[in-house]
Amino acid sequence: MRLQMLFKRKTIVHVWINILLYSLLAEAALSAEQSSEACKRRNCGSGPNISSPFYFEGFGAASCGLGGFGVVCENKKPIYHTSRGPYIIKDISYENQYVQLVSLDVFDSTICFAPKHNFVFDNKPLPLRFNSSHANLQFFYRCDQSFTLSIENSSVPCASSATHPSFVVLINNDEDSVKTKNCESHVEVPIDLEESNQTIKTVNYTELLTDGFRLVWNEETLYKGCGSCIAHGGHCGFQNGVTSCLCPEGSNPTFCSGETSGKVGTSPYRLIYHKFYVCFCMYRLSPTLDLSLSCHNY
Q: What number of other Cβ atoms are within 10 A of residue 30's Cβ?
C-alpha cells in the first residue's frame, strides 16, 4: 500500500512538471503565431499593402518594421508622418525598394496647389534617400515688389494677393535653392523629373506635386536576408535592431522551417491537447485531488 502511494505521488510530480513545460511552450508558440500574423501585409482599406520595413503604429508590434518607418491609417489612407507634416503613401515597391509619398496638402486639392511645409529627413537613423530623378519645386509666397528671380518661374495665382504675388521655380540641384527675405514665406518640396534638363516652363508643376516623390532604401543594408525569409513563408521583422524572420513556429534569423504540424512544442493546439490529457491522467491517478481549478488555468 505504501509503495502504491509513493508511486502515485511520484507520478503526480512528473505530471505537474509536464504541465508546466507544456504551458511555457504553448505560450511561446501562440506568441510566435500572433507576431507572425501581425506582420502580414495589409492595407488601410486603400493604397498599397504595408509590410517590413514599414509597420502599422498601434496595430501589431513595432518589431514588424524598423524604427522611423511607422505608418498610420487615417480615413482609410496610409499616412507617413514627419516632423513637418503628413504624407500619403501613394505606392510602395518592395521589389525595387522605394516608397512614393505625396504631401497631404496637395493630395486631395483640386483648386490651389500650394504646399505649406518643407520635407525634411527627421533626426532618425533612416537609411532612406532621394532617387536619381530627384529635384525640387521652390515656392515663394506673397512677395513684395522688389522681389526678382534670375531663373524661369511661374506665378501661383491662388496663393497671391493683389499687391503681393507668389511664384514657383524648378530647382534641379539642392545647392541652387534661392534665398530671399522679400517674401512672407517660402517652401521647398521634392519631386521627381523624367528628364534632368526640364524647366518650370516645360513641366506641369501641379502634376509633379500630385505624383509625389520617391525615397529609396537598400535591402542589403536595411534588412539583409528578408528575401529568403519571405520565400519560406515568413514575415521580416526586427528585434533589437537585428533582422528576424517571424514564423508561426517562432523566430529565426534567416527563414521559416515550415515544420509546425504535428510537433510538440511548435503547435499550440497540440500542446493544449496534451495539457488536457495530463490533467485527465492526474484525476485518474488521484480522484480525491481537486484538480479542477488547476486544470482550468491551463
A: 14
